[in-house]
Specification:
Number of strands: 2
Structural class: mainly alpha
Order of helices and strands: HHHEEHH
Distance between the termini: 74 Å
Largest sheet: 2 strands, antiparallel
């Protein structure tokens, strides 16, 4: 007789994501994001980073409120994970990418050279923030808004 393994999953679907995506899609997203960040951070000089510690840190960030963008408070569209299509993006250009503005992604809260510290945010937010710290982005946004009001 086959007995289903009742061991707890290493990464269960965070409660804040229930009904927003499947566990399988979340795990795929988690592993891909961790792998991508490890590769990038190793290229930047972090010789001690590893996928397991990154998965743990990313999962913790999601569990701590990853249903909303950590910087804007917007509700993230977890139903979009694993839906982006490069061929459709190439054909649809900006219009296609805009549909994924609230796609959840991962952003470093530091320079990526020490212990992993991540925030979950929208793709649009991550694009806007780039390599800026939160303080640098805040100053830039203030200057931007001030000058838009003058125009």
């Amino acid at each position: 007789m086959y007995i289903k393994n009742s061991m707890p999953r290493k990464y269960s679907l965070p409660q804040c994501l229930e009904g927003k995506c499947t566990h399988a899609d979340y795990i795929h997203w988690l592993y891909r994001k961790a792998s991508a960040h490890v590769k990038r951070d190793q290229k930047r000089g972090n010789s001690v980073c590893n996928a397991d510690s990154y998965r743990k840190a990313i999962h913790s960030a999601v569990c701590a409120g990853g249903h909303k963008d950590a910087f804007t408070g917007e509700e993230l569209h977890w139903n979009l994970i694993r839906k982006y299509d490069n061929a459709k993006s190439k054909a649809g250009k900006r219009g296609y990418k805009k549909q994924f503005a609230l796609l959840p992604t991962v952003d470093h809260l530091d320079d990526g050279l020490g212990e992993p510290k991540f925030a979950i945010c929208a793709w649009r937010t991550n694009d806007c923030k780039g390599d800026l710290s939160v303080d640098e982005l805040t100053v830039f946004c203030s200057v931007f808004l001030y000058n838009q009001k003058k125009a």
